[in-house]
Write a structure and sequence with these properties.
Strand order of the largest sheet: 1-2-3-4-5-6-7
Radius of gyration: 18 Å
Largest sheet: 7 strands, mixed
Shape: globular
Bound molecules: adenosine monophosphate, fe (iii) ion, zinc ion
Helix content: 25-40%
Oligomer: single chain
Order of helices and strands: EHEHEEHHHHHEHEHEH
Distance between the termini: 22 Å
CATH superfamily of one domain: Metal-dependent hydrolases
Length: about 290
């Protein structure tokens, strides 16, 4: 007998991590969806940093192209000096506590970007207006927008060069943004009915301490994004053991940012069965089927 459960309608390939110009992607949500469709994806999530503002446009575009849409977000967190990104799926976008958290992060990002602009402006011909010109109205502002202003001003060739130099955390121009600790971030997503997954958990900064991972699991962590171009295989192997021990969810995704990064839709994908697990575990919002 065919199942009528909504999750049974998920079809692959599935890419659960893409950015639009509501954060640091370079395209509006409908263009991100079009790019995903061109690359053969059947299911996608929009995961802009600290905002859900792109959901409605992305949902409409996916459905019109016969694709399935998962509402998502990449929530900023920090452990000591390092930034930790928590992907959040199918949470309630109106949850008051999570909204308060993202409002606080986005407002801190604004002050921080202005402070970085004023520091950079002492040495380079870049103004706050130049940065605003690279930022869509209402978008979550970040270093990528400052990078784009530096590119537009002919100061660097691309975002990569800006991140390696002027925007590097070890440099004089860098300013920290407010971000919650990873356990608080995970708990906030879980309490909003969503499924939290650590983004690119095995990157250059190394693995988070096992004790912290355990506390995140206790707080409701759903799993790890093990398929991501920045992950290192040796570290992925360590996380796979934790996945098996705790029966966690594993995802793979592109982290597409339009022209802002070389990452292409579908370069890593998530198994349909894992998408179904995310849908079954979440109760904050629903996927949108064509
Ligand atoms: P922020 O959160 O404002 O500190 O900026 C971090 C964001 O910059 C991340 O979400 C990445 O997508 C982006 N980013 C980091 N490194 C690079 C790079 N080398 N090239 C392009 N984008 C980058
Ligand atoms: Fe980003
Ligand atoms: Fe990230
Ligand atoms: Zn991302």
């Amino acid at each position: 007998m065919p199942s009528t459960a909504p999750s049974a309608r998920v079809s692959g390939p599935c890419d659960l991590h893409l950015h639009s110009d509501h954060s640091d992607g370079t395209e509006p949500p409908a263009a991100v969806v079009a790019a995903a469709h061109r690359h053969g994806l059947r299911t996608m999530a929009l995961t802009d940093h600290d905002t859900t503002a792109g959901w409605a446009e992305a949902a409409e575009a996916t459905v019109s192209l016969g694709m399935t849409f998962l509402p998502g977000m990449e929530l900023s967190a920090r452990h000591e000096w390092r930034s930790v990104h928590v992907l959040a799926y199918l949470f309630d976008p109106d949850d008051a506590a999570l909204r308060a958290l993202t409002d606080r992060i986005r407002s801190s990002r604004l002050t921080r970007a202005q402070e970085m602009a004023s520091r950079i402006g002492r040495d380079y011909a870049v103004s706050w207006d130049d940065i605003l010109a690279q930022t869509a109205v209402g978008a979550t502002v970040g270093r990528p927008h400052i990078a784009d202003a530096l590119v537009a001003g002919g100061i660097v060739a691309d975002r990569g060069e800006a991140f390696a130099g002027i925007l590097h955390p070890s440099g004089d121009y860098y300013v920290d943004l407010y971000a919650p600790d990873p356990v608080t971030a995970v708990a906030a997503v879980a309490e909003a009915g969503g499924v939290p997954i650590i983004a690119h958990p095995a990157g250059r900064a190394g693995l988070l301490p096992v004790g912290l991972l355990r506390r995140m699991i206790d707080a409701g962590l759903g799993g790890f994004e093990l398929g991501h171009r920045e992950n290192r295989p040796e570290q992925v192997a360590v996380l796979r053991e934790i996945v098996e021990r705790h029966d966690l969810i594993v995802t793979g995704s592109s982290d597409y940012h339009g022209a802002g990064k070389p990452n292409l839709p579908g370069e890593f994908t998530t198994d349909v069965a894992m998408v179904e697990r995310i849908i079954a575990a979440a109760h904050g919002s629903a996927p949108v089927f064509p």
